[in-house]
Design brief:
This protein has about 375 residues and is of the alpha+beta class. It contains 12 helices and 17 strands. The chain starts with 9 loop residues before the first strand and ends in a 5-residue tail after the last helix. It binds adenosine-5'-diphosphate and magnesium ion.
């Protein structure tokens, strides 16, 4: 896939969530028409795309329609069924490829890929059958049991401390294939977003630092405060090796742990733009979504430049409820009155606790100022300080 697809053509996306919405917005800025396939009639991306095909992901007529509309197709969530991507890939340029997405869909395959690339990951065991549960090395406990497939935002995971707890957790998760990981002493979490094109050229965003609450990303800070430059290059280099070995085309995010002893460990990867890269819309001269457009369309890739320090706060559905559980609209004026705030709402009509409704990016000339304003914004919205 090396031919350039010029603006004026139509770019399609499988999935209509907020990542698809921001991809569509970036594509539209560059003069592309856009098509979204998502079963939800009011999906965030479907609402802003030129064409919305509201069918299931494996619906043949829907896939045919998406192909008919689109000159090239990408995906916005990793659980798009691989067979759907294979069908599309037989007729249209599809990036990332079904094979690369398949590796990212399975924690066991993902970890095997890290190991193949010489990138350390958490000590782990793959548990498929009861005998694997009984035979799992005791050295992995206390650990975290994660379903091999379909987990996100801390879902499909359980903390386990002993063998009895492991058995119970495996049963509770439905006795599906799982990965048991040793619980590691995390000093901090960082991630790298890399974009790679069909010619094998890649560029990346600066290393971002991420804070999770209840398994969901809460805050991203860029530049990562006081991050050792050797560690930063290790992370960028690891992401490049991981993408190269997949012959990846598109945007890929690799999440890492920095351990208490300073070691860098790969956690997981996502074959798409990532929540931890949303700040790039407002703080970089090329956003992660424009990178996705450029890699898909075969446009030139240039190294993005971080022109402002940034802090991103995730806005979860919890903010749409007051202390008594009554639904309300958050007080946006209180944050929009602060300098350097960029509010992004995804157009979701039904707030739910834990649901990603939007994000707020604070940009400033320096990291200390970005952080100070972001803390002020967090407090104004009723979010914990960080
Ligand atoms: P998800 O797909 O839900 O993002 P992750 O594997 O990234 O799943 O886990 C979510 C969070 O749980 C991580 O960001 C980290 O904070 C914590 N976590 C996951 N694995 C480990 C581990 N092996 N040791 C310590 N903390 C972990
Ligand atoms: Mg994660």
């Amino acid at each position: 896939m090396t031919a350039t697809i010029q603006p004026g053509a139509t770019l399609g996306v499988m999935g209509g969530g907020q990542l698809g919405r921001m991809f569509v917005q970036a594509a539209q800025s560059l003069g592309y028409f856009t098509a979204v396939l998502d079963p939800d009639p009011v999906s965030p991306a479907g609402r802003v795309a030129h064409y919305h095909i509201a069918t299931e992901y494996l619906d043949e007529a829907g896939l045919a329609q998406l192909m008919q509309r689109s000159d090239a197709i990408t995906t916005e969530f990793e659980n798009v069924p691989a067979p759907a991507l294979r069908t599309l890939g037989a007729h249209r340029p599809v990036a990332p490829s079904a094979d690369a997405v398949a590796v990212c869909q399975d924690r066991a395959a993902e970890k095997a890929h890290f190991v193949r690339c010489g990138v350390p990951c958490a000590p782990h065991a793959v548990l498929v059958e009861e005998s694997d549960v009984e035979g799992a090395p005791a050295s992995l406990l206390p650990g975290i049991l994660k379903t091999a497939r379909l987990g996100y935002d801390g879902k499909g995971q359980a903390n386990v401390t002993d063998r009895a707890g492991l058995r119970a957790a495996w049963n509770a998760l439905g006795r599906v294939p799982c990965v048991l990981e040793q619980r590691l002493p995390l000093h901090r979490e960082v991630s790298v977003i890399i974009a790679r094109n069909a010619l094998g050229h890649s560029v990346s965003l600066p290393v971002q630092q991420n804070l999770h609450r209840d398994g969901i990303l809460a805050v991203t800070q860029v530049p990562a405060p006081d991050l050792d430059s050797v560690l930063a290059s290790q992370a960028l280099d690891a992401a490049r090796r991981i993408a190269d070995a997949l012959r990846y085309v598109g945007v890929l995010c690799v999440e890492f742990f920095v351990l208490a002893d300073g070691r860098l460990v790969a956690n997981e990867m996502a074959p798409r733009p990532h929540n931890s890269g949303h700040y790039s819309i407002d703080a970089c001269d090329v956003s992660q979504f424009e990178l996705q457009v450029r890699t898909l369309a075969g446009l030139p890739l240039v190294q993005p430049r971080l022109h402002s320090a940034a802090v991103m706060l995730n806005l979860l559905g919890d903010l749409w409820f007051d202390g008594t559980g009554r639904q309300r609209e958050p007080d946006w004026s209180s944050v929009l009155g602060l300098p350097g705030t960029h509010l992004h709402l995804y157009g979701k009509t039904h707030p739910r606790r834990g649901r990603k409704m939007g994000h707020l990016t604070v940009t400033a000339a320096g990291a200390a100022q970005a952080r100070a304003v972001a803390v002020e914004a967090a407090v104004a919205l009723g979010l914990p300080a960080f």
